[in-house]
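seq as requested:
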Amino acid sequence: MSKNTKLLYCILGSVLLALISIPTFYNAVHYIPLIGFSLSQLLYFISAIGVILTIYFAIVLIKENWNFK
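struct tokens:
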């Protein structure tokens, strides 16, 4: 598997992490007794990490394929 394919899989995984905080998941977790609020805040944190990783891997992919001629 080429390095570009691996980076594309990393970007896909990061986007899925970023989508974890959509309202459906947030509402489902938020109403769990005792630990729901903590889990919902953890989902926002994981989503933020996913956004950061998406940006990072996209920049790495662009730098790998940039041709300086």
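Residues 5 and 38 are 35 Å apart (CA to CA).
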